[in-house]
Please model this.
Amino acid sequence: MRDSTIPATRPAGGILQQPYLWVTIGACALVFLAAFESLAVTTIMPIVSRELNGASLYALAFAGPLATGVIGMVAAGNWSDRRGPAAPLYASVGLFVLGLLIAGTAVSMPLLVTGRLVQGLGGGALTVALYVVVARIYPGALHPGIFAAFSAAWVIPSLVGPFAAGVVAQVLSWQWVFLGVVGLVVPALVMIVPVLRGMAREPRVETGTPTPWALRRVSWAALAALAVLGLNLSAEVRIPGLPAATGVLAVAAVVVALVAVRPLVPSGTLIARRGLPSVILTRGLASAAFFGAEVYLPYLLVEQYSFPPTLAGLTLTGGALAWAGAAAIQGRLGSRLAHSTAVRIGSVLVLGAIVLALATTALHWPPAVAISGWIFAGGGMGLLYPRLSVMTLALSTKDDEGFNSSAMSISDSLGGALALATTGIVFSAFTTTAGSFSGVFALAVVVAVAAVAVAPRVLAPSAAD
Model:
């Protein structure tokens, strides 16, 4: 049956027609710049670490922004529910720019990490605030299109970001990878300002009771962030005489993260209750499976198949293009492709691609199998990611758009972070290269199976067959 949340008709024009043109361009530009910065830092961080003598803080430079982003997501969601997304969006862009300035002028690794923490706080809040802007500005029938554009804005930097960052670092300096983005963020925000001015004067609630400040939720977010950092760092802990300490710390960090995340997501999320809770959970599981496997695919090709690093990285291009293409296709199909169908197909494609990567590793198949399979993984994410975003907004009211948008972003962030940290522990637990990669992909397969199992439950009980 067709999802009841899909509008039957599509409004005239589209996301690039008036009155949406400048909002679309500005919002996509902000998403693009945030994604570009995330990917670009991966390229330049070895140079930064060597120049600033900061090898001991290398991992924290990546884990820190992910952790503080969770706090930003919760705060921006609560703020948006209270006052609308205008003020949170201004504040998030301000923090993002401040973080770039601190990192770009850093003379020591601790100062650079500080900038990255501030940048992560702003970046997490930025995502949530933009989702609420979408909910307030665009009619429901245009949501697949705008979220397809957001997906493309995230994917395109994976094609150009690492190369561009390398060129900037080589021709100018690594500092300009941070500072150069500052000059682009401000014009992107300016495009959205006229709409934000009008939204700032809108009534924010439907019930007449203002949404309270959720300080307790922010505290839980901080605890979840600390747990994520702890899990990322637990693999580095080696206590003489206690070889199991790493595993104990890792399990404790996961338990703390799950306990802390419960108040940050809709009730029933961790038990896959039908409707919105399963939408949020599927998003997290898909992120965990996809990103937990993707970061090891180039590593596999270098270690086991002797690919040069540049060629190994380019093997992910097919997946990135498939993500963008599938996102565009689902956006054009609109109501002709049911949300639940797109989510189910997408999750199966991700699972199949990871199974191929596991088989390639364990059975020593040609690397072309895993490389080709990753195209299906990208296509699966391009199908399910935008539709899960659409469903989240469709199942929200003005009073909880911010909370639900932040829950979706938190599920993304924590899902990926927990998977990456756990796969890191699994990878180091094996004594052979083949065993390490097989263990990583096997864990990703288990997570992907869970995503496939939960995907049919994204329909609300009243809409389920």
Notes: The chain has three domains: 13-200, 212-264, 268-465. Confidence is low (pLDDT under 50) at residues 1-10, 203-207. The longest helix spans residues 21-51.
